[in-house]
Amino acid sequence: MKKELMLELLNTKQYKQLHTLLMENNTVDMAYLLQQIEIDDCAIAFRLLSKKKAAQVFSNMDIKTQSQLVELFSEKELESLIENQYMDDLVDLIEELPANLVTRLLKHVDENQRQVINQLLSYPKDSAGTIMTTEFLSLKKETQLEDALNYIKKNGNHCKSIYTSYVCQDKKLIGIVSTKDILLNDENKSIEEIMKEDFQYVYTHTDQEEVVNIFRKYDLVVLPVLDDEKMLVGIVTVYDVMDVMVDETSEDISKMAAVEPHDKSYFETSVFEHAKHRIIWLLVLMFSATLTGSIITRYENAFQAVPLLVSFIPMLMDTGGNCGSQSSTLIIRGIALNEIRFKKIFKVMFKEFRIALVVGVILAIANGLRIYVMYQELNIAFVIALSLIVTVILSKLIGCILPLVANQIGLDPAIMASPLITTIVDTCSILVYFNIAVHIFNL
Fold it and tell me: How distant is the alpha carbon of residue 87 from its chain centre?
């Protein structure tokens, strides 16, 4: 409804009412609203916002809308936009924009900003340096709290977070102090008297997943980032971490579904791109499954002697695949939460073995009784029951071992999820099944 009203106000040039309508929303909702209309209309509505508000709305837009707006902006508007953007948001924009638009933006960046941008762009992908912001509050230890509070009031607008100030000596971080402590203590005290010297920090090259784990473990709102010489170069905020968590989760879900991860949304990705991201793993898994087919062919004589054996193959393969997927999913989650590490592999295997034994026996009894009642074949019931127990044990052990091994050798454990585990377990379950059948029936 707001979209239709917004278009009506634009068409009738009732800009004052349109401004009022936009200001009823927060910056995130404003960005979403403006993305729903044609880019020319979006640019008109965007220009009705104050410079600071416009910069906040712009940073919440998708890259497609941002690129189109940059193309439409005048040089003066670009200069204003850059002045009101946080440095990390500006770097993210520069990374995504086409080269010709980046050139236009950089014309309005001064030498100091350019150095910061180049520095941020030089950090390894998915490191703390790529998600940090360089705008933060820095204090000296001898500063009195009254002066510190005035400093925060004066400079807070230019910082992404004012919850914490950082105490530096010769650019090296020696302590932190919260704004709350500054407000609640005697204004005649110095920063040194109330600052904390025991604090968490990361380095610019720290992996962003480790940054997320530190935020989660210590319930942080902001985290300082140091360079190799322990000099404070930036901070990571909880807002940055939430974006990382979404990205990392999306990547893991894609890998667990045997899809190559990518940044575009579902509808922004073309049919050809979707196919390209999926086909590689599908080919790998398809050709891997030929091994299962060759094993079945090898036991053709067993089929001829006891044709009923064939009908239980899908059930055994599905059960094994499901059991392996259950274990791998829980282990991958445990690795992500730092609950499970490779050094605990034997403890994990022992636990999964016991779980598999309980589950396998229950499934074996249920299926054994069902088969005996339906077919009156005690030997087949025994073969299926025994095959189920062994298959479940193997599946759960494979499901817990592979993610841990992958993580230990530097691979993403998410790749050892359902599709790959299922393919491996299918082969193992067929081998187990026919070997047991051959020995029971003396084929």
Answer: 22
